[in-house]
Amino acid sequence: MDKLEQLTQKLYEEGLSKGKAEGQAIVEKARSEAADMLKQAEDEAQKIIAQAEKEAADLRTKVEGDVKRAATQAIQATRSDIEQLIIAQAVDAPVKAALSSEAFLKEIITEVAKRFSAQESADLALILPEKLQKELEPFIQNELGKIIGKGIEARFSKKIAGGMNIGPKDGSYFISLTDETFQALIGEYLRPATKKILFG
Fold first, then answer.
1. How far from 102 is each of 23, 63, 107, CA to CA, in Å?
2. Type and span of the H or E element at 80
3. How wide is the angle at C-alpha 106 spanned by C-alphas 89 and 165, nearest 5°?
4. What pTM was computed for the model?
5. Tens digits of residue pLDDT in 120-150
6. Domains of the chain, start order
7. Residues 12-40: tens digit of each pLDDT
8. Where would you tag: which of 34, 104, 135, 178 has the fewest CB atoms within 10 A of its CB?
9. How far is CA 189 from CA 85, 108, 151, 184, in A?
10. What's the CA gap between 97 and 159, in Å, rounded?
11. Residues facing residue 12 across a β-bridge
């Protein structure tokens, strides 16, 4: 019986030892796998953080660029508005006054019509400000035709505040000499000088 007990004890101890060893190996394997999983999770987390930081930096750069661009555009628009206001103050009122003056307009009509009729064989057509019809119509009907030696037709329009449009009677083209075209033309000449004076 002692031998049987010894044998049983031996088998028990060997089994126990083997079970402990296997259990220890399973635990070690689980620990190793857990460490690998933890390392993988940490690496993935670092990648996600790095990507988020890169996207945040890109967004910040884009937003800063957009803000700078918007600020530059706003400054340019403000400069342009200031320029336009100054040019308008310097040009608009004097041009409107001159091109709404009956005497001045008669001089312009006469000079332009003379030059125009020297180059064009066709009769002329004028479009003039309606507000000056009473003053200009007798001049055009009675005097201008005699001065240029051609037929001339005049229409009066509310769309023209000052100045005139002139062209062949057939309407093939016309030249605009209105207050708006003069203001634009003079404004173009003044703009560089105004810009230099205002902004260096």
1. 115, 58, 9
2. helix 2-99
3. 70
4. 0.49
5. 667 788 888 888 888 888 888 888 878 777 7
6. 98-199 (3.30.2320.30)
7. 777 767 777 777 778 787 788 777 888 88
8. 34
9. 15, 21, 36, 9
10. 16
11. none
